[in-house]
Amino acid sequence: MTQVKKLWPLLTATHRYDKTISTYNRGHGVQIEAPILAYLIETSHGRILYDVGCDYAKINDPVQRARWYDPVEFPMGAPQMSEDQRLPAHFARLGLTPADIDLVFLGHLHFDHAGGLCEVCGAEVHVHGAELEAAKAKADDAYFADDFAGDYRWKIQTDEYDLVPGVRAINTPGHTAGHMSLLIELPQGRPVILAGDAADLTENIDDEIAPGTLWQAREDLAVASIRKLKALARETDGELWPNHDMAFWRGLKQFPEFHS
């Protein structure tokens, strides 16, 4: 029986970029606005956070912004992130603090998913071993080295496993070496499958289009992961949620409302 009680999607920033970042070889010259999300899961065994968004200081401090988002070295540019979108601000609106987060599960270690680790530094941090290795080797430019260089309580994973009853880690490599998605069994509604960046947009799912950034150009691996998630959705009657789709996010319950 599931231990999940509530699920909150948290908008931590927004980012404008060329659509080819999300859809491989499709949409060149088309600018899209993407939400950068984290997900708070309350269970009877504690609170789980899937992804942590960006490092606020790297975006809002002029010196750090110039270093990490140099327009020549990083043409994708910096996201837009306000103080009230930081994780502690979201937690405070629920009467919580970062100390109330028991476990952080990182789908992957790109800057817009792992940068906010500095906000929840006391929690146990789950990540795939291949992902941490690729991040330390800077397999692509979206890994910011000091995002994951702190003294964190790493719990390195390789296999699929249950974080708690009702929350299962799913291996979905392709976008990155050790990307992981999450299956969440809600107490009343249909299960939710957080695709993470295995599928940025609904288009990635419907048309089985790989994300624009790929680990070692493995389009085949990325498409296989999308198909795996779609099969899981059919088997579980689950809802498959893309990760950077603004229209999809606007159709979800808006914070502080929750899914249950």
From TrEMBL:
Gene3D superfamilies: Ribonuclease Z/Hydroxyacylglutathione hydrolase-like (3.60.15.10). The keyword Iron does not apply. The keyword Cell membrane does not apply. One of its GO terms (molecular function) is metal ion binding. Its cofactor is Zn(2+). It comes from the Bacteria. Pfam families: Lactamase_B (PF00753). Keywords: Hydrolase, Metal-binding, Zinc. Residues 35-244 form the Metallo-beta-lactamase domain. CDD domains: AHL_lactonase_MBL-fold. Belongs to the metallo-beta-lactamase superfamily. PANTHER family: 102 KBASES UNSTABLE REGION: FROM 1 TO 119443, QUORUM-QUENCHING LACTONASE YTNP-RELATED-RELATED. This is N-acyl homoserine lactonase. It comes from Pseudomonas turukhanskensis.
